[in-house]
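Q: Give me the 3D complex with GDP-alpha-D-glucose.
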Amino acid sequence: MLKTIIVSNRLPTKVLRADDSLTFQPSEGGLATGLGSIYRRGDNVWVGWPGLFVNDPAEEQYVTEQLQADSMAPVFLTEAEIRDYYEGFSNSTLWPTFHYFTQFATYEQSHWEAYVAVNEKFCQAVLAQSGPDDTIWIHDYQLLLLPEMLRRTRPEASIGFFLHIPFPSYELIRVLPWAAELLRGVLGADLIGFHTFGYMRHFLSAVSHTLGITAHNGQLEVGQRAVRVDAFPMGIDYERYAQAAASEAAQAHERTYREALRDTRVILSIDRLDYTKGIAQRLRAFELLLERYPEWREQVSLIMLVVPSRDQVAQYAALKEEIDELTGRINSRYRTISWNPIQYFYRSLPLEELASLYRLAEVALVTPMRDGMNLVAKEFIASKADQRGVLILSERAGAARELSDALIINPTDTSRLAEALHDALVMPEDEQRQRMAAMQALVERYNIFSWTKLFLNQLAYTKIKQQTLATE
Ligand code: GDG
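A: Here is the predicted complex, encoded as structure tokens.
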């Protein structure tokens, strides 16, 4: 029977070492949910790093067996590999470049070599799991070389690739010393997906400038193969967020928060710690709101949840300091004995608490400098059963292409952002409901399950079309 193999840097289960024992913690991420029904079906399997270092062969075997029982195949990586391939090339070269932060990008030959070697390691792991005609769906920027590596040994396989982050303008791609190799790597796939048409166009332009291959109707001729390129905006598990928000637990948390906040109006900000998310700019806009509109003092609170991420990397540590400092400054400047403008949490919260924050907030402030999609915006929408609430959304998040009923802003424009906050706080309920209803219909319909189905159907269709062309 033909199999489907999902490949991503991380497995949907994280293996943690505490004292002398190992625990297996399933991830709550969107991708894990969306693909859950796929990788657990039949002989399908998910290939990826389990998130811990293993030096003992007996332990390696134990982890492998445990994961195998839940349709996963681990790729074990060493500390040096994680340092150079993951923190190095993936997060210090590709991540800043693809998010237009070239000032943070490093270009280390040794990181590149580790990236090639780890992609090769993933290739061997996938080959061990797959037959010649299987379907392989590869995810994200850590594995750009994998499609081509697999193609060499599996010329007949159906290979799909999806990029979760933006694909930037060719002007950024051309800065990378390894641009041609990376693009050739991705072109090993039969279907290449992006969140938006804009990213897709940038990719086609980079391929044309770098490799001299031009697209016709979203199709590239790569040797004898036709490669299809398209936009697949990723969705969320709508019901899961709607239900979590409606749950007793979320309502109880909400009541506690409301009491503590003395019924002030709530603006919400939720992100991983990352310079792409525009957290500092958002704080400045909130400060400007309080300065310009004194009537909001003691009337609004900003709940800011920042989830720790990559904080060993220098830029992330610096950003953390900047956020701490700004929050301290704003709170000390405006706080009163019974009101604190910003409630700042630096940790991650369980889903019910997250859902209670979505319930509580009247305004969600999603203002990244660049963001492939941004799922927080969609989760906020799914949580609003009474259709009240306003989303303020950066024009540079992929989600802005779909959620045109949000207040769309330029995140660099602090003054306009402060005005958007004011506009959101005074927006009539009728208008809130009208905008929210339109966005809910869209987010409910184009959810994570339809996204998965659409991509895999399109991949199967691309393959059939290739075969028909070959026999004509
Ligand atoms: C990348 C791209 C693209 C956050 N805090 C908590 C928590 N979260 C969850 C949110 C959401 C997820 O984390 C964050 O997803 P985003 O899409 O906002 O951002 P990235 O992590 O940067 O993801 C992005 C995505 O890939 C998918 O393609 O949209 O553009 O950068 O689901 O709810 N979850 C829990 N507690 C928290 O404290 N349980």
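A quick observation: The pocket of GDP-alpha-D-glucose is lined by residues 28, 30, 164-165, 234, 270, 272, 305, 307, 348-349, 351, 354, 371-376, 379 (CB under 6 Å).
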